[in-house]
Design brief:
single chain, 194 residues, alpha+beta, 3-stranded antiparallel sheet, two-stranded antiparallel ribbon, 6 helices, 56% helix, binds zinc ion, transmembrane helix, PqiA-like, PqiA-PqiB_transport, cell inner membrane, transmembrane
Length: 194
């Protein structure tokens, strides 16, 4: 006899085997593992990593220095804010748009790769990394809000302007793909015997 709980509503069933069935409470299709979970999440993470490159390399902002408009990437923008002695804004932009997305991507990639090939990370630690990513995932849209908010605040000084385009689109996609990759991943796979 097996005890199986619905991943959606957590109702517990007694079953003879792992055949899929429909939850009588919430109509969720109960499967032993989410279908192709690891493959899909890994693919989404790799896409997000590739999109992170144009997000960093293409101009995201327009900065007016001595009356001259220059386009700058996120990192050049951070440097400009440091030059203007706006250390707090520089720190927030750097953390929200460079560090947090990077931590999430590297963490997810590490977990997924370690499940594909046998890297020695203890399951508990993999689980911890994942929980951490999920935790900062709750704040992940902050990346975009911070940049949007700063754009509107700082624009008053006519120094700084967010421009749309390739970098901004790539950046938004990085955030969204990372969220979907983490959300769709079936953490039970971490504990499967390999
Ligand atoms: Zn259910």
């Amino acid at each position: 006899m097996l005890l199986i709980s619905c991943k959606n509503c957590h109702k517990v069933y007694e079953k003879e085997n792992y055949d899929e069935f429909v939850c009588t409470r919430c109509n969720h299709k109960v499967r032993k593992r989410v279908k192709n979970s690891l493959q899909v999440s890994l693919a989404l993470t790799i896409c997000a990593i590739l999109l992170y490159i144009p997000a960093m390399l293409y101009p995201m902002m327009e900065i007016t220095k001595f009356g001259i408009k220059t386009e700058s990437t996120i990192l050049e923008g951070v440097v400009s804010f440091i030059e203007y002695k706006s250390y707090f804004i520089a720190f927030v932009i750097f953390t929200a748009s460079v560090i947090i997305p990077l931590i999430k991507l590297v963490g997810l990639l590490l977990i997924f790769i370690s499940l594909k090939i046998d890297i020695k990370i203890r399951n508990k630690n993999k689980n911890r990394i994942f929980k951490f990513i999920e935790m900062i995932g709750k704040w992940s849209m902050i990346d975009i809000y911070v940049v949007a908010l700063l754009a509107s605040v700082v624009q008053l000084g006519e120094i700084f302007n967010i421009k749309g385009g390739l970098a901004a689109t790539s950046f938004a996609l990085v955030v969204i793909l990372t969220m979907v990759a983490a959300h769709r991943f079936d953490t039970r796979i971490i504990w499967d015997e390999r």
